[in-house]
């Protein structure tokens, strides 16, 4: 058995700055220590898949990220592990507990997952080893993990057995960043028939104008949004999320936490936003002033044939306001995008839900670059921004 401090401090020394996940009793010491650590960021994710995406965002932003979860939650994380971190080659460190360990007696709901946890990781092409249980084993384990993360640029996992880490006092907890006053919902023209609403391309062109390359990052959700954005303007400050439906907002949160001073804009669809609605609460709690969340709502799953979503019956802006966003707009007028980007003095992330019509402007090509190439280009763009800002700060 080791102490949480022994592992976390060595990991911090290797650059693991953002820690996120969903609690498990096996993880309690690590989570308690991470929450209380003044030099670490802890994000309490709504589910394990969002935790993986948030940690992946931190990695894209230039930090190392850790996603922690009970193995029962590994099922929630399979999709982003298979179609986000694997496809875009984003190296996230996983700590997965082994509930239902065949060597121990556990609750019946953990029996099957305990028997197949390692197999799931192997099927996902994620190398793993057991979490270190002696101080002398920590550094070699982290060295193996970091070598894989750096060389393969894909996740690596520690599987944690019961009793691996000794208890840590919770007296050092920092308060979570909650308690913002709920924003009011501002509605702008929700009376147009669906066919008279602006199109997705019109909205994306307006967003492109508001996201200059030198100070903005633009994340587009899976499906037609990323493809249409790429066709309009394929810029190095843009990232197209292919697969991992619903994870674009949690990815953007991780990027924004790692990139203070850069505006991070994420464009969601209604289907994607509905799929992982719990992340509204996470963004509302942890998102900063430079995070902008947009939902383009055409009320259908367009890229799969136009099947209806339930978005016609809800208010995304109302949900965002209740979850702590600093500004929440909705309507069917492109002017709400101008208002969104022009707003100043807002505490917390900003949100707008724009009703759009279904349909695309002609046949949509796929991005010319592969997802991995887009990811590499995005990170290189951030390095150029860092170099330019460092040059501006240096004395002449």
Number of domains: 2
CATH topology of the largest domain: Rossmann fold
Please summarize the sheet with the most strands. 7 strands, parallel
Radius of gyration: 21 Å
> What is the distance, rounded to the nearest whole angstrom, between the alpha carbons of the first and last residues?
53 Å
Strand order of the largest sheet: 7-14-15-11-10-8-9
Question: Which range best describes the helical content: under 10%, 10-25%, 25-40%, 40-55%, 55-70% or over 70%?
Answer: 25-40%
Morphology: globular
Please report which band the strand proportion falls in: under 5%, 5-15%, 15-25%, 25-35%, 35-45% or over 45%.
15-25%
The assigned structural class equals alpha/beta
Question: Main traits of this protein?
Answer:
2 domains, 15 strands, six-stranded parallel sheet, single chain, Rossmann fold, 396 residues
Please provide a brief summary of the model.
By secondary structure, the protein is an alpha/beta fold.
How would the blueprint of this fold be written?
Elements: H1 4-13, E1 16-21, H2 28-36, E2 41-44, H3 48-60, E3 64-70, H4 74-85, E4 93-97, H5 111-123, E5 128-130, H6 135-152, E6 156-160, E7 185-188, H7 200-209, E8 216-220, H8 224-232, E9 238-240, H9 248-258, E10 263-269, H10 270-275, H11 278-286, E11 291-297, E12 300-301, E13 307-308, H12 316-322, E14 327-331, H13 335-342, E15 350-355, H14 371-393
Parallel strand pairs: 1-2, 1-3, 3-4, 4-6, 5-6, 7-14, 8-9, 8-10, 10-11, 11-15, 14-15
Antiparallel strand pairs: 12-13
Helix pairs in contact: 1-2, 1-6, 3-4, 3-9, 7-8, 9-11
